[in-house]
Structure formats: C-alpha cells, structure tokens
Amino acid sequence: MTSTADGPGAVTATPSQGTPLPHEPADGPVTKGIGASLPSVDAPAKAEGTFPYAADLWAEGLLWAAVLRSPHPHARIISIDTTQAAELPGVHAVVTHEDVPGDAGHGRKIADQPAFARDLVRYYGEPVAAVAADHPDTARLAAAAIDVEYEPLEAVTDPEKSFESEPLHPDGNLIRHIPLRFGDPDITGDVVVEGLYRIGRQDPAPIGAEAGLAVPRPDGGVEIYTASTDPHTDRDLAAACFGLPPEQVKIVVTGVPGAMGDREDTGLQMPLGLLAMKTGSPVKIAATREESFLGHAHRHPTLLRYRHHADSEGRLVKVEAQILMDAGAYADTSADALAAAVSFAAGPYVVPHASVDGWAVRTNNPPSGHVRGEGAMQVCAAYEGQMDKLAAQLRIDPAELRMRNVMATGDLLPTGQTVTCPAPVAELLRAVREAPLPPLPKDSPARDWLLPGGPEGAGEPGAVRRGVGYALGMVHMLGAEGADEVSTATVKVNGPVATVMCAAVESGQGFTTLARQIVQETLGIDEVHVASVDTDQPPAGAGAHSRHTWVSGGAVERAAKMVRSQLLQPLASKFGMTAELLSVSDGKITSYDGVLSTTVAEALEGKELWATAQCRPHPTEPLDETGQGDAFVGMAFAAVRAVVDVDIELGSVRVVEMAVAQDVGRVLNPRQLRARIEAGVTQGVGAALTEHLRIARGVVRRPDFTGYALPTALDAPDIRIVKLVEEQDVVAPFGAKAASAVPVVVSPAAVASAVRAATGRPVNRLPIRPQAAVQGG
Q1: Count of CA atoms in the C-beta half-sphere (13 A) of 152
Q2: Which residues form the Aldehyde oxidase/xanthine dehydrogenase a/b hammerhead domain (predicted)?
Q3: Is the pTM above the cut of 0.90?
C-alpha cells in the first residue's frame, strides 16, 4: 500500500511529481504517523549506492558458486560426468541430484520442482548441477566442463497441445481445471460479440539479479543470506531438500532490489546450501542477467476465448469464456493465478449469468508463477476488449457502455460471493471520464519528440492518429481460497525509542515505513526502528497481494495498542480514571478533562515495555466444483483512461497520458502511494507495448535487456492521479486497500483500448505488435 518505487516500474516521468494528490489538505501535509509522507529510512543509502544487497555480501574463506543449466527444453539425461570439472584447480565441490539428501522439491504452492534435474530436463535453463570454486570465473569454467549426455525429446510448447501430449511430469500435464457456472447457462442476449486474446510472457525484470550467501553452521545446518520475500516457507523447503529439521536452517533476509514475484523462487538457495554444507565453507552466488531471466518465474502466457451477450441497451446478460494458462514446466502458483483469472473473468461489471472454464497446464516452457496482478491482468485485457467490441456493435460510447454495467457494493461476483467491501467503480470511471484531455501535439520540428518513435523516428505527423481508451479492473487482497493469512509482530519500547520486530520483508512496498508510522501514531514516539528479518522470528508470510499492509500492519497495530495500554493504565489508575479516557498525540498524554497532562517521554522514563500480537483476517473458502465460493477477503478497483498517439503507417505507439482513479480505502502515506501507482502504471505500459520474453520452440531468445525491452523514462507517459476514493474497508486494519497491483492490471487494457480507438483495429494481443496498430494492416 505504501512504498518507495522499487523494481522495473520505478522509472517514471510525470509532471505531477511533487504536486498534491487529490485528497491532500490545503493547509499542509501531516508530518508523522498515519497519513504522513514519511520517507523510507533506507532511501538515502539506496540513492547513494551504499545499501547492502545480497550481491554485496562477503565472508572469510568465501567460495563462489555457478549453476549448470540445461541447453534443451526437454531431454532425457543419459549421464552426468563431473570428473573433469572436479579436477580443475580451485574447484572445491560439484553437486548434482545425487547429492540432494532430501526428496522434496521446491515451488511456492506445489513443491513439484527438483533442486536439480534427475532423469529429465523439462525446460530450457533448468538447473542440472552446481560448482563451488575459489573464483567466480573458475566456478563458471568448471560448470561448463561438466559433461552431460542428453537425449533430446520433443518439446511441448503449445499449451493447447498439452492436453493430448504424453505426461511431462509425474503429476500429469493438467494442474487445475475450474468450471465456473453462474446463473442460466442457456440464456442468450440480443447482441453477441466474440474475441480471441493472447497475453505474453512478462518478466518481473528486477533491478538487481538474484544473489545469495550460504554459511555452514557448527550443528551441521546452514544459514542462507538472500533477498527472500517469504523466508519461513523458503526455510522449510530448503530444510526438506537438505534432509534437515527446519531449526537447522536459517534464512536471513538481505536488501531486496525490487520484488514482484521473482524473489519467491528458491532455485538458488538449494545449490547454495548444498555446496556450503559439502565444502564446509561460505559459498556465494551472484546471477548474471541471463541467469536471472532463466531462473525465476514469469507472468503466465494466456490464451482467452470470450463471448459476451448483451441486451439492446448494452447491459450485460451473460459472459462465456475459456481461459488457458501456460504454467511452464512446473506448477508453482499456477492454481492460484487460475482462480483469480476465472473469478474475475467478467471484470468489475454486473453479470447475471456466466459460464467460464479455466485450465492451467504444464508445458516445456520456462515456469510461470506469481507476478503482480497474476490472473487478473490477463482477463482484464480480454474482457475490456469485449466491452469495446460491444460498444462498437451497439454504437454506444465505450465509457457509457461501461457505466451502464459497473459493479457496486452488494453485487455478486460470478463465484456467488457478495462484494461486501467498498466498490466505487462508477465513481472511478466518472472521474477519469470527466478529467480534461491532454492537448494535441503541435506539428512543428521543435516538437518532433512528441511523435511516436521520437525525434529519430521515420514517422510523419500526418500519419499520426490519437486514441482515447478506458479500462476498469480489480484485484483481490491477501491469499485466497482458504489460505491461512496470519502475521505476528512484537513492539518493544525502551525509553524514547521503540523497536518493531516482524518477519514481514521490506521488498519495496514500504512495510518498514508503515510500521514506523503505526507506532508513531499509537504511542506518540518519534524514534522507531524496524529490526532486520530472519527465520528466528515468528512467521509473517509472503509479501504479495498487499498482505503486509493488512496482516503485518494489523499485527504491529495490535502490539502497539497493547504497549499503549501498559503505558497508560498506571497513569489512569493514579488519577482514578480508565485508560480509555487518556489520549496520546504529538508526544503528549492528556486526559479528557485536562487534569492529566504529561509527555510520553516522562511517562516512559526508566521503563521497558513490550507486547506481541497476531493479526488473522476472516477466513475464506475454496471454490467448489462449479467455481462457487467466498474465496476472497477483499478487493480493490481502479479506472484508467489512456491517451495514445499512433503512427498508422509504421504501427508505432506513444502513450501520451494515463489518467488514474483508484479505490485505496485510506491513504497511509501520500508520497509513497503516488510512487506505487505511478510504478504500477508504468509496468502496465511495458506489458502493453514492449515486455515479452521471447521463446522459440522452448528456447529463451536474448534473455537480456536488449532483447527484453523495459520502458525507460523516455517511454513513461504523463501519469495523472485524478481521484483517490477513500472509502475505508471496515474489516481491514486502517481501512486501506491494495495499491500496487491494480494499476498494473488495468493499464495494459486501457492502452489497448486507446490503440483500438485510434486505428479501428481489434488489438487482441499483448504486447501490441506494430502490425496490429497499422490501419488497414
């Protein structure tokens, strides 16, 4: 909910930077506590390049690791000969699947991926062996010297063919099928539109590639220092792989250089730990950019077939959809992504009848997994394409068509779940619809940079068409389908200083800043420290779906309130009143009648107070055999209006402006909220126009930042936050909602809608290819 802008979406160019958000008071900003634009403590170190990341770690007697990866997307391993590699000077150890003492695999939701390939390799880049040596170059040379004999097998890279192919995994090719049925399956509308949509393989593309350091322990265990976002789950998976009890494995979280799912991959931790225990020395690995692309999970490529039914006034009657998600070689979190896609297949619209089938299948493509807005982003692009088609068929303004169908609090999802949280979708759409449009570019050489393609492009002003498009979208918060969402936090106060201990990882979402704000607000203490994270602390869960704003922030708030009671109760008793009659504000404690007035510092003098608390939201339930169930704790919504200029001869697209209205519940940190929204929009623009990890017959092509194009500051559009709706969710701590994921979900669909408006082309694939934007092409 609140954070600095880390990760690939952090580079933005916007004239609104530094201007007030729509809700900010005219009499000046709040300076501390909830609602303040409190800066991140580590921001100066990150800006100066002195912040310690895993790649910066060092230890006495350090060895370096390198991983040998498969050159085939699918092959049988005939033999592995490590003799030549082991005999190279400087090599201390070589490990393969034979050196893995445990039987468990790894994977965030389903642990079906081995630490090293055994009999088969199932995707290009799968780890086969690892080496520890006294120099990184020696380690890489030794890894290359391992002689692996492969028998190449036919790779299944088309998810549609996965259904009929031989099993690629002992668990089969089908990971999950959800047949959602809602209402009358036989009803039809006056107007029917159909569409086929394809969503590409977006990569998290973190600023810093994966790295880690493993240190052997005297008890035979190991400590692993890495940028984990879910250290307790990583510890348990690693311990099972190492054949050790969890208490002999410790994960220490280092600085996280951006995280949108990729930090949940445990593929590096397994070889690190095995090599450290085998050599008895600290072992470090720092992945190259190519290894980073090959090693972590990507957004699920998805094929979507849709049929929308509406009446003659444009009101939706029924939505039919088939959603096929490519999970790659292993399951990971694909079952969860599919649940989100199927549940939100109709979007934030009232749909009385729905028939949706969703499948997640294994292929020999690289694994897919958790990337911000997974599932929801793919279907948003499709159902908004359908809304544009309906508007064109009925000759209704696209924004007006959406307004006639928007969801509100009390409506039903196609899963049968009632939307009980605030759902101000109409208000959001109205805000972006009524916002002033940006001016048209002037036809002069001085403004050539405003043309698609920039000043060096071949475009002509006369070939440029402007388009305006709209999109609405939604995401769920916290885990779903019965996930036990719980976090534990401890707040300690010693004199004028408070310390927060919670295993919620600061991954760029701003949890450490939020924790400081909560304690400032509750206890009136200015100096608040947040302890570093390791697995000696109670678990707090993964950093996804705004979990830590809600669950970990809620735990910190409860612990701080318990400390507050410990602080106030003696004072209240001394004056013959209850603690509830005392208030804490601006470092002062006062009673309702003014009899008692003292400072927090005076009340705390010589005292050490502490409390531990948990936060666990209300339970959810799995979807049943017809896709029905109360699967989600809460939802957040956004509306985006995109304005684009398209060269209809070259197919080049320039995003001029993105106007955003978002349902945020409550603004906890205005400056960081702006950063999160702008980062999310920019990441969405990348998904719409440039970001696609190219795979040819299962082989990753050009896994680098030349072949994989991220939007830069020159590509980022003007981003205007035209409205923030602060209708607090009563079941959420502070009433706040997810802020980062929903603009990522909605922005690609809005850009595609605007390109349709400019060109008249269907635009049914993301990222948008130039030929799709050429008028008459």
Answers
A1: 9
A2: 48-154
A3: yes
